[in-house]
Amino acid sequence: MILLVDLSDKKRPLLRDEFVRPVAQIVGRSGAEWTCCHFTEVDGQALAGCGAVILCGTALKDRSYLDAREHFSWLRDAVNPVLGICAGMQVISLACGGIVYDCCEIGMVEVKTLVPHPLLPPGPQFSAFELHSIGCTAPPGWRVLALSQACIQAFCHPVRPLFGVMFHPEVRNEGVVERFLCRAGEGTS
Amino acid sequence: MRLGVLCSGGKDSLYACFRAMQAEEVVCLITIVPANPESYMFHTPNLHVVPLQATAAGLPLVSRESRGEKEEELIDLAGAISAARESHGIEGVVSGALMSVYQSSRVQRVCRELDLWCFNPLWYYDPRRYMGDLVASGFSVVISAVCAEPFDESWLGRRLDRDALSTLEAYSRDFGISLAGEGGEYETLVLDTPFFRKRIVIEESDTRYGNFRGSLCVTRARLEEK
Prior knowledge:
The complex is a heterodimer of chains A (189) and B (226). Chain A is an alpha/beta fold. Chain A has helices at 14-19, 21-29, 44-48, 87-95, 174-183, and strands at residues 2-6, 34-38, 52-55, 82-85, 100-113, 125-136, 143-147, 152-156, 162-165. In chain A, strands 2-1-3-4-9-8-7-5-6 form a 9-stranded mixed β-sheet, with helices on both faces. In chain A, a hairpin with a 4-residue loop joins β7 and β8 (152-156). The two termini of chain A are 15 Å apart. The mean pLDDT of chain A is 95. Chain B has helices at 11-21, 50-57, 72-88, 101-113, 127-136, 162-175; strands at residues 2-6, 25-34, 61-66, 92-94, 117-119, 140-147, 186-192, 198-210, 213-225. Chain B folds into 2 domains: 2-119, 3-Layer(aba) Sandwich (Rossmann fold); 128-225, putative n-type atp pyrophosphatase, domain 2. In chain B, the strands form 2 sheets. Chain B has a 5-stranded parallel β-sheet, with helices on both faces. Chain B has a 4-stranded antiparallel β-sheet with strand order 7-6-9-8. Chain B has 226 residues and is α/β, with parallel strands linked by helices. At the A-B interface, α1, α2, β5 and β6 of A face α4 and β5 of B.
């Protein structure tokens, strides 16, 4: 079971169609079951019942998740595999000691791979869809895997299965999600 | 939140409007009328029917003309959205972008420049589920243009119902067309939706067709009670 976490403003349910549903479709196509909850509803019970967690992105103007950092403290000790997408990567960074800052990219950009990783598309660089107004640093001790001209595009924990990508893999890079599910033992792709 | 919906008159913009109405307050439709029929950004067949759709929906329409040239379209789009903000106090914009990174990125940039929210409720919606939902939700949609093999002339004006959807699925499988017409294989015109107070009736139209390309241009239409 995959737990999809909706990071959008709870007052804006329309955003779920745009940022959670495309990820849910990839998970479904991969043969894994999924459930979804808002980030304010993630608790020990929700985490215990799932094999992996995907933190989905949200709209450019939505910064509500940044004002609710107490809801992400579980990430510091997470044992489930976690993939943070865009805003999801930002909250991983914040929870684990990184910082966020204003940094906007919209549309397709070239991403340079620094450290080849099974989750990322193969090759030294790849095109990715960006939709963010905030960038983030890697938490201390984490590995930076990829960069665009503007900011860090992918990082991972050195030991635990925690990953963050700033680009939106649900657009033209579905393989990132599929490979994450496979590594988590949840997908068939 | 008060929203303006970018409306081309086709299924995607009006279904996005329908979804937005379920979550937020839609206060106007916004349309760009390009002079260039090959507009990069804006769907063009039967844009002159959009005012009738706005009336049917009981929504004001903010309409702007554009020369329809590649980057000027963005200036015209920003102008139309700004006008909607001034006249209707919109705080955000809804688009019917399905899979076009080109289209959605440009709308996102314009909204960011204007400090407005941007919603794309159909974004990467599985085409089969989307088309099924569209047909099941009470929309009356007709094919207004075709531009791919194997569409013949009989498709022009054809209602998008379960039979048509079944054939489109076969075309998608056998000819590689996008089920939702995302590749421009066909265009649509919406005649009725669950939120229209009246439905549109086409009284006269002009059909042109040849070599798998054709269009149905509505020359006279009216509203009728539902």
